[in-house]
Amino acid sequence: MLWLYIHLPNLLLEHISQDQAGKTPLIVSEPGHGLVYQANRAAHELGVRAGMRLKTAVNLAPELVIARMDSGREQRALAQQARWLYRLADYISLYPPNGLLTEVSSLKRLYGGLPSLWQKLTEELKSRQLTGQMATALTPSAARYLAQINRGQCTDCPEILKGLMQTLPIEQVDLPERTVKRLGKLGLLNLNDALSLPANEIAHRLEPETLQRLQQIQGTRPDPQTPWQLPHHFRQRMDFVSDIEQMAGLLFPLQRALGELESDLQWRQQDTDYLKLTFHHRDHAETHLAIRTAGPEHQAAAFMALARIQLEQQQLAAPVMAMTLTVSRLIARGQPAGTDLFGTESDPDEAWQTLISRLQARLGESAINTMVSHPDHRPEKAWMQRALAKPGKTAPNLDVRLSHLPQRPLWLLRAPQAVHHLPEAWLAGPERISGGWWDGERVQRDYYIAQLNTGQLGWLFRDVSGGWYIHGWFG
Amino acid sequence: MKELLDTLLQDARVWQAGHQARPPEPEESTGYEALDYCLRGVGWPRSALTECLLDNAGIGELQLLLPLIRRQLAADRMVFWINPPYTPYAPALERENLDLSRLVVVQTEKSADTLWTLENCLRSSVTGLVMAWPGPLKIRHIRRLQLAAEAGGGLCILFRHTRAGEESSPAALRLQLSPAPDRQLNVRILKRRGGLQGSDCTLSLPGRFPEQAPGSDRVIRGPWPDSNATAQTP
Question: Does A423 share its domain with A331?
Fold first, then answer.
């Protein structure tokens, strides 16, 4: 078995500074100890090193930007990175806080040898602006230690790998500190020295656990790994170095997250129609923004267009320090996307969805409706608003009027209006409409069609009180 | 000189403005012979704005458009009503045998939203017809809408007040609608592309003649107070 370990020494730093130019010195601090945990290149040039006291660092670089580390953050960042690796390799394990392990002997054939896989991983790391130290080894532990001290080589030759493993310094192996010291006093400085001793001697002089650990590194004792599984949802969190106060400032990080979402959905061959954006504020409860599309969609550009419309209209409640994009509803993809080779929408369904999503995003869902008639005698209840649904094929429309239905005006007033000057030209009527005794909204009216002096053709009625009202126009 | 010109004209790289083959704009008949005659066969202009100017609703402005709406629905295109002044009444539309699921009513609150909606609807390929009651418009807004209409393939009809007729407008067709005697509709062409303005015609629209049951040609005005009282206290 061949294992490959990717050590990400600056994971947290690179996670939060992805949208920064990298010109400002930036460090991540450990909260309890007041020590520098990770420092970026600009900070490094000013003399700031990891492990330095914060006070020293601030004196060296007064304009230093300090981001605080919290326990979950680095793990979440690691899980985000595991996503893309999972697309390339089937068996991966997470080594929090900043390592990813994958089994590569089964991948060599797929990628045409280890060098091309190595190349692919290097490119992926580079495209995500990540510093990664990779190492291969015959055992998971050996790969991890080699990657951590950046002594990995792109090779699958067992002899070379064995040689590399044997040169590992003893203090690199995660043994109890007491044991390491003791081994050092015995003059055992690297793994080769320790392994050349008889096994029962090690178990006898040191602890049996030490022997077990050494044998796991050597590969003579099993070292089971827990495989990581891709969760059935998409979640990406973007942490910002400095708080963002303008909606426009969120667009760029969002664009990147949507790009990740698109490739994730593409890889899963799934779509979604509901995105949730959560804004994390420093001194304010989280705020949410829902982005709905009219139909299943996977393209980042389509999501971005809708998000832009909504973000432009919204005001931020408070400065945003982090943003999470969550997609939990994943829909199996029915058909291939409707855009043709040139990126134009040839499919009317697709065009319909795009238009309606855009309108709903800006105007709200209640602003766009269709109408249906409703079986009720009362004119104001004889129709209903209905939320928009995708229309099917229209039946061949005969150019006929359904004249068995009573004549009704094309315009209905929202509420009947009192008529002050009665019209002279009465054309049709009366049509008595009486109903509603069953629900307390009784209507008892005689309807007429008459032409007003302005030339308008109206639908008038007189109710039991004797007042004349206009209720519609024959537009 | 002429030889030189002739050789030049033979050259495929020379483009002659006079030979510019203008693709004939697809016609959209109005469904009314008299109006079609007035518009000289151009009909409702596709990919362009049409303005209908009128004082009051209820003079037959929707009846005028029904043949057009019906044709758009038959072609599986959407018909949008943007900010209609009253409720388009579903039973009446159903009586006209229209597919209600393709008639979409959009209500906007701000005028910026209205223009944005109009523009988006016009640019989409699913749109057959957009009818809008946009309220007061600035000329630059209309120009923008005109551009959007050119980008899409749909028709756009703006209903505006007669007062707007005093201002100029980039719309391709401007009609002034006014009531005529006998419940007819007078259509006056204020502007059309490539033609004389000022011609007008009078249309009699089918939906404006109330159909009374035979034998009841007399309109009875009621209810009578006393009969009503007896009806209430049986």
Answer: no
